[in-house]
Amino acid sequence: MFPWNVLQNLGWAVVFSIVGAALGIVLVLGASVWLPRLIERFTPNLDEEKEIARGNVAVAEYFGRVVAASILGVSIVVAAAVVAGVIAALY
Question: Fewer CB within a 10 Å sphere, N or C end of the chain?
Answer without folding.
Answer: N
